[in-house]
Amino acid sequence: MQEIKRTKVVDALRRTDFGAEVNVRGWVRTHRSSKAVDFIALNDGSTIKNIQIVVDPAKFDGDMLRQITTGSCISATGELVESQGAGQTVEIQCHELKIYGTCGSDYPMQKKGQSFEYMRQHAHLRLRTNTFGAVMRIRHNMAIAIHKYFHDHGFFYFHSPLITASDCEGAGQMFQVTTKNLYDLKKDADGKIIYDDDFFGKQASLTVSGQLEGELGATALGAIYTFGPTFRAENSNTPRHLAEFWMIEPEVSFIDLNGLMDLEEDFIKYCVQWALDNCQDDLEFLNKMIDKTLIERLKSVVDESFVRLPYTEGIKILEEAVANGHKFEFPVSWGTDLASEHERYLVEEYFRKPVIMTDYPKEIKAFYMKINDDGKTVQGTDVLFPQIGEIIGGSVREEDYDKLMAEISERNIPMKDMWWYLDTRKYGSCPHGGFGLGFERLILFVTGMQNIRDVIPFPRTPKTAEF
Ligand code: 4AD
Ligand code: MG
């Protein structure tokens, strides 16, 4: 007998050719038995929805049916029929069942309503739950939206290296890459490690950002974007930080500060609208189970103009709040970096919409940002989002060779690592700018999840690299 072709559950649920023979395969969510009839809810990951398999127990071996428990993997063949029950439009009147893999009662995802901390300890199996299925399908959809947006707007997908010898953000948060024997390191008279005989002949690390190479691409191809993993050895145990996260970094020639903010706003709204248009079932599930205001919040971000706020004005607002009795944990004054409580006050309480903050004091930003005429502030932009805080960091770049050089020496950035970057300013320099969007922060926003560890399949954080 020829095996009939498998139909994905997402497709089966849309079919209306009742009476047709269909085969579905997936993992059992629940199996309810009674004397007259068995109901199996089957999910194959193609959609949040299950398909109901209706089984006449008289027609099957009882021992076999008893092995079909939550988590087991089966193949079911039968007639597609219009469903009488509430909650589904079609179901399968089963006449053939096959068990691929049974699943014992020690299955860690058995019980509903486990804590997210418990799920993280079982990250290899949590993907089979409704919540993580929904998050992963949305994550995929956001990646597609990002490529589509940039492709449609004439940006080229540009691959910056993951192994690098320069520290883009200058924050010293890099993971080293070496083939040297760590138990037997060659050192000079001052006790410094000699890297001559290391794989790359110099100290190398995993990249914290593809921006510097992205600028080389943009000043040749006009507009590029990177989309890849980045690594930061910052010891931040927060629900917003990962040691390995994905970043999207567009870089554009001939763009000014207003153009950059327009791009940031348009791009992020496109991604959120994409989720609303393409991830309806998963969003409805998350809206019900995780965050009752999720869909409303997504819609409001698409509809609203982002506030554009110079840092100096932002500080004034925060100082006024303090004067009026608002309590912050950290002090706020011109020149200090904003803490997340300050960002959230501006976004969630004061303006109640996303804020693009600009023109930061140069001391609290990276060396490459364009210096304003006041000599004190730089054309950096952070996009601040409700619930998330900083979702994008970007800037117009300093394109003047001498000004950039001055900044590099003032900050003691080793010149030998930067010669190739400075060549962009030496040969046909041009105004340009770009930004970095933290992919997982976008997924946090779009899913309503609370912890960044729950929007990437296998999170890397301080002291955890399991799976
Ligand atoms: O603000 P950042 O550090 O900017 C840059 O790396 C620039 N080179 C980008 C550019 O202009 N091309 O990082 C950009 C974004 C942040 O706004 C945040 O969303 C995300 O990357 N991000 C992190 N996400 C998760 N875990 C971390 N440890 C993150 N650090 C930054
Ligand atoms: Mg930043």
UniProtKB/TrEMBL annotation:
Q: Does the keyword Acyltransferase apply?
A: no
Which InterPro entries would you find in this protein's record?
Answer: Aa-tRNA-synt_II, aa-tRNA-synth_II, aa-tRNA-synth_II/BPL/LPL, Asn-tRNA-ligase, Asp/Asn-tRNA-synth_IIb, NA-bd_OB-fold, NA-bd_OB_tRNA
SUPFAM superfamilies for the chain: Class II aaRS and biotin synthetases, Nucleic acid-binding proteins
Where mainly found?
cytoplasm
Per UniProt, the enzyme's principal EC class comes to ligase
| Superkingdom, natural source | Bacteria
Q: Which residues form the Aminoacyl-transfer RNA synthetases class-II family profile domain?
A: 136-457
User: Could you tell me which Pfam families the record lists for this protein?
Assistant: tRNA-synt_2, tRNA_anti-codon
Hey, which family's this protein in? Belongs to the class-II aminoacyl-tRNA synthetase family.
How the protein assembles, per its UniProt entry?
A: Homodimer.
Annotated protein name in UniProt: Asparagine--tRNA ligase
